[in-house]
């Protein structure tokens, strides 16, 4: 369901620094839409005709690999969805699925680039933000190397850095993931994930809670990295 936009530019790093005049020109192009849990924003191989941003909620980027899926990343408020494909003007390389009821801001690719072409300062700012996005993607790819335990340690370290809430010396990650979703994030089997998380629970490395995970010591996870 489309809603009248009150565009929260300040909450979207890629757009937060643009000038008021540029915001005024961009705002009529923006559409905000509410998605229900499980809805798809775009499918793999679809043309990247719109750039999307998470305003509220969570989105997972899923890649089909044969008979199974891998979750490439999980995106939260303020983060772009499919931005690299839009800037490279190619099809979306993966599918974006809403993990919880979410609000997504979308901007049509053609009009967005026409606006950038006429506003060089805005272009420089947006490209700077896109560079940071590419660096995050490269880090995620690097994190997918090594053993399953090493990949899991890197995943929970990253989640703690990005969304962790300090709580009595611990870090609480307010993101409820099923064991299958964790397996898809780690690129491993459900059985391996269940065994690992059960062991980590006993070893007090990562504690599974109803609404997320508690990491008692990020340093203990860092010690697992090679």
Word description of this protein:
The chain is of the alpha+beta class and 226 residues long. It contains 9 helices and 13 strands. It has helices at residues 13-16, 20-26, 83-88, 109-118, 120-143, 148-163, 179-186, 190-202, 218-222; strands spanning 2-3, 31-35, 40-42, 50-56, 59-65, 68-75, 80-81, 95-98, 102-108, 165-167, 170-173, 207-209, 212-215. It has a 5-stranded antiparallel beta sheet. The chain has a 4-stranded antiparallel beta sheet with strand order 3-8-5-6. Strand 10 (165-167) and strand 11 (170-173) form a beta hairpin. Helix 7 crosses helix 8. The relative contact order is 0.13. The mean pLDDT is 88.
What is the terminal-to-terminal distance?
47 Å
Query: Stretches where pLDDT falls below 50 for ≥5 residues?
Result: none
Largest sheet: 5 strands, antiparallel
Helical residue percent band: 40-55%
Q: How are the strands of the biggest sheet laid out side by side?
A: 1-2-9-4-7
From the alpha carbons, calculate the radius of gyration and give it in angstroms: 19 Å
Strand content: 25-35%
SSE map:
Elements: E1 2-3, H1 13-16, H2 20-26, E2 31-35, E3 40-42, E4 50-56, E5 59-65, E6 68-75, E7 80-81, H3 83-88, E8 95-98, E9 102-108, H4 109-118, H5 120-143, H6 148-163, E10 165-167, E11 170-173, H7 179-186, H8 190-202, E12 207-209, E13 212-215, H9 218-222
Antiparallel strand pairs: 1-2, 2-9, 3-8, 4-7, 4-9, 5-6, 5-8, 10-11, 11-13, 12-13
Helix pairs in contact: 7-8
């Amino acid at each position: 369901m489309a809603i009248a936009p009150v565009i929260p530019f300040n909450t979207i790093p890629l757009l937060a620094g643009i000038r008021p005049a540029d915001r005024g020109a961009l705002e009529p192009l923006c559409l905000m839409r509410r998605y229900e849990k499980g809805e798809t924003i775009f499918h793999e191989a679809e043309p990247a005709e719109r750039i999307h941003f998470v305003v509220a909620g969570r989105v997972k980027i899923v890649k089909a690999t044969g008979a199974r899926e891998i979750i490439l990343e999980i995106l939260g408020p303020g983060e772009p969805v499919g931005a690299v494909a839009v800037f490279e003007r190619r099809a979306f390389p993966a599918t974006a699925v809403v993990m919880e009821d979410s609000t997504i801001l979308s901007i049509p690719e053609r009009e967005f680039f026409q606006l950038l072409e006429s506003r060089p300062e805005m272009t420089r700012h947006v490209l700077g933000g896109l560079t940071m996005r590419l660096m995050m993607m490269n880090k995620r790819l690097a994190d997918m190397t090594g053993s399953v335990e090493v990949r899991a340690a890197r995943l929970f370290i990253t989640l703690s850095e990005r969304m962790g809430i300090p709580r009595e010396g611990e870090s609480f990650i307010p993101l409820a993931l099923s064991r299958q979703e964790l397996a898809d994030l780690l690129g491993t089997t459900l059985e391996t994930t269940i065994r690992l998380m059960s062991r980590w629970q006993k070893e007090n490395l990562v504690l599974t809670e109803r609404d997320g995970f508690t990491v008692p010591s990020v340093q203990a996870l860092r010690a697992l990295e090679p």
